[in-house]
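User: Can you predict the 3D structure for this chain?
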Amino acid sequence: MKNYSFLESTDALDRFVADWREGTLPKSAWTHAAHVVVTAYYAFDTPAEELFTRMKAGIQHFNQCVGVIDGPDRGYHETLTRFWCNAIARAIAEASPATRFEAAMAAVESFGEDRELPFRHYSFDLVRDRRARREWVAPDREVGL
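Assistant: Here is the predicted structure, written as structure tokens:
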């Protein structure tokens, strides 16, 4: 697994999530692995539907703080956010980690470099569709997430 500064310690993880939540995290630090770690951080003790609501609001707030305009072709993506929340919540529930930090480490190890997972469940055109960006669209390939 790649080395991530936010996984150096529990304190580093807590600081990273706090910076994201406050909108002070540099935009360049909001990578795919960062999305995964923040989702896992909350998935540790948050029910799935609440997790999605929290991540949606958090991503939109962060985008606003760093100047990303959510629109039909960029910014927040409803389908991908719900997809990743479901996938990570399921993985955390199955792994039953003892701590939030263990949950974060496990999720990043499983999903931190896997940007292609949605394309095993969605056709490329469907993920890129504007409707999928603004509202949940169910997978059109494999079912299960």
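The helical segments are 10-22, 32-43, 48-66, 78-95, 100-111, 124-128, 130-134. The first helix runs from residue 10 to 22.
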